[in-house]
Write a structure and sequence with these properties.
This protein is α+β, with helices and mostly antiparallel strands. The protein has two domains: 32 residues; 121 residues, Immunoglobulin-like, CATH 2.60.40. Helix content is 19%, strand content 37%. The strands form two sheets. The protein has a five-stranded mixed β-sheet with strand order 1-9-8-5-6, with no helix packed on it. A four-stranded antiparallel β-sheet has the order 2-3-4-7, with no helix packed on it.
Amino acid sequence: MTWWREQRTALIALVIAAAAVVGATVWLDVVPSIRPTDRVIEAESTVDIAGQTLSLGPTEWGEFEAPEGSRTLSVRLSSTGGFDASVCGPATLTETDSSRTWVSSRAGLDVSSDEGESSCTIESDPYRILLVFLVPDDAEGPFRLDIEGSDADVARFVIEP
């Protein structure tokens, strides 16, 4: 028997492994880089995203009970709803000075749904949104509130509580 015949199983496994590595690299590194990048829409008080108009309302520190060493920052938004309204992605709060980022922790704090929705929804009528962020005591702001739209758009509000 020749060496090639003796090693054919190992060689086939090596070719399959090499193809898997190339495929994983393309899937994880190349494909995301060719997708359209997010378009950030800077907004002062209102923005059109996901088929609806979001308006920034009041913000309030410490409205809800928080664990020791942290506090809550409540952000209220209102939406016009609309015929073409679609669901938004997650809302994130980023401290501009340190780039620390938090996601809305409303569910973990057991905030009532009577206060409003926890994100953009598919509504044709106007509705309210309440985002509650649990931040450390030393977080003072200013903050960036980013809300992902249904496409590659991101609405960005500057919040200075």
